[in-house]
Amino acid sequence: MLRDEIKLQKMIRSPYVLPLLATVDLDPNNPMMVTEFMDQGTLYDYLAKKRRGEPVAIEVTTVQVAWVIANALLDLHRQNIIHRDVKSLKVLLSSKHGVKLSGIASARTVHGLMTHDVGTTTWMAPEVLRIDYEEVAAYGTPADIYSFGVVLTELDTGDEPYAADFWRSHSDITARVRAGTLRPSMGPNCAPWLRELADRCLAFDPAERPTAADIVAILVPHLNDQPAP
């Protein structure tokens, strides 16, 4: 499994993806990867600190983070690779290297048939959740776009996905997302253009979601106008 990740990581060419610097193969059964050190942890932890009013070493803006993720997905999708596990826990922050998307262990080249049990259900697209454990079904790059939309809700609200539905069980949330009757929401003060983007990314029908290239184009005019999450 790790060797497959290493092989795929070597294929990826993107300044927005956490780079593989070297591999260490002292144990043939347990190769290790050396990547850039991202000293400020994950976006998930960053947002949690902000919620608790704790100090953070660096500040990032909503658009800054969205820009990196969108461009990372653009580069991956152009190389026929689906990330399959886009979430705030895979977005890493560094005082030196900025923002990078990690988590290539879950990525796969696009081949029409993709397994279900990859990723985290909170960020999964409905079409991925509809796949039975014993089966495979077709899904593609739009699944990454849906997960990106979930991250947008985290950036806008500063909270975990579905925090407004805290009273629902995890299985209930999953069932409703799978059926298309529930999706994570933006905050009441969200900028209209950002709300529209999130709505498009979170469309139930994969064909109605924008591509990564579409998202990058939408973000360009807003690169300098968003406050920190």
From TrEMBL:
Record keyword Lipid metabolism present: no
GO molecular function: ATP binding; protein serine/threonine kinase activity
Record-annotated Protein kinase domain positions: 1-223
Name of the protein this chain belongs to: TKL protein kinase
Keywords: Kinase, Transferase
UniProt signal peptide: none
